[in-house]
Amino acid sequence: MWNKRADTVVHETEPYNAEPTPTALAEGFLTDEDVFYSRNHGPIPDIDPAGWRLTVADGHGMSRSFSLVELREEFDEISVVATLQCAGNRRAGLMAVREIPGEDPWTQCATSTARWNGVALADLLRSCGVEENTPGHVEFVGPDVSDLATPPQRYGSSIELTKAMSAETLLAWGMNGQPLPRVHGGPVRVVVPGYIGARSVKWVDEITLRDSPSDNWFQRVAYRVLPSDADPDSAGPGDGISLSSVALNCDFLHPDPTTTIHGDEVRVGGYAFAGDDRAVSRVQVSTDDGATWIEAELAESQGRWAWRHWSAVVPLDAPEVELCVRAWDGAAATQPASAAELWNPKGYVNNSWGRLTLHRPP
Ligand code: MTE
Ligand code: MO
Questions:
Q1: Which of 38, 89, 200, 246 to mutate to test the pocket of ligand 1 (most atoms within 8 A of CB)?
Q2: Residue ranges in the chain whose pLDDT is less than 50
């Protein structure tokens, strides 16, 4: 379905929610369309690019509207390599601690990287008279109505105006050199590099300037880290920590733990990513539950908005070896060891150490 590989792990068909296998995700620094994870809260709309229009409103009664042709003609095309990562990435690790009803058990593959092409949102906003350094927020709304929200409503989110006016935030119509696929928001989506995937609104058709963050359910109620003892059903608007920047995170993508490893050492590898304003500075792997650490090699950085691939050769001196991996950022902050200390009622931001158990022939 949706041009995804046959080995894609489909959590739900309606709405469509699916992630690649770790092996598929490891294949490229950029993630091919048929591998890229897909996260939806409602039906995937079918929009004719020729009929699509984007309305930009100042929140005080003034608005302008753009067609796709106008966007392409009036503004310079830019391209940004950026990793999208769902706030629910690695939720399965939290569910292993305690159940999280009504949410999908994403593994470490609810994240993918693409080269996005389009226009800088800042250029579009400037053309509408928005000035740099004005305080405020920018709301994005798509046409897909989600009945997961209370009340059912179109999917929306917001970011601070400063991030909207940054060089990296874009309205994308291209992904890895191809027209943006329908399932990923075609004809046009927002891409907010360094922020949780939820802010990168697909099929965007309304942008509104605001004094405060969006009242949309997906901004005000969902995508918030509630205290571990909170009842998610009675959580109100504004409760919990609102997520924007992606937390420092990393995990294994290979080798496949269901295969038997021959030899007394093995090369392991995966991805590491840090959100807005931070960078991955180091990745380490341990074979003794964190007592000692082996420095992993980090692949060369391909820009500050993209993940880093890493790999390390580790000894395998027992029939079963449990590995863990952690990253560090530029402030020398690192990741917590266990998912238990991070458990939260909606299951967001599991950035505990990645873990992988490997087997040798008996
Ligand atoms: N935009 C709309 N209109 N509807 C959605 O359900 N899901 C968001 C975001 N944008 C969503 C959306 C979430 S939670 C994520 S993680 C990303 O899209 C996923 O983007 P992808 O499906 O292209 O991987
Ligand atoms: Mo997400």
A1: 200
A2: none
Residue nearest to atom 12 of ligand 1 (CA): 201
Residue pair 112/32 in contact by the 8 Å Cβ criterion: no
Distance, in Å, from the CA atom of 179 to the CA atom of 301, rounded to the nearest integer, reads 26
Tens-digit pLDDT profile for residues 281-295: 999 999 999 999 999
Q: Which helix (H) or strand (E) holds 22?
A: helix 22-25
Domains of the chain by range and CATH? 9-242 (3.90.420.10), 249-359 (2.60.40.650)
Q: Which of 19, 253, 57 is nearest to 5 (CA)?
A: 19
Compute the distance between CA of residue 254 and CA of residue 325 in angstroms, rounded to an integer: 12
pTM over 0.80: yes
CA-based nearest residue to 39, from 96, 87, 99: 87
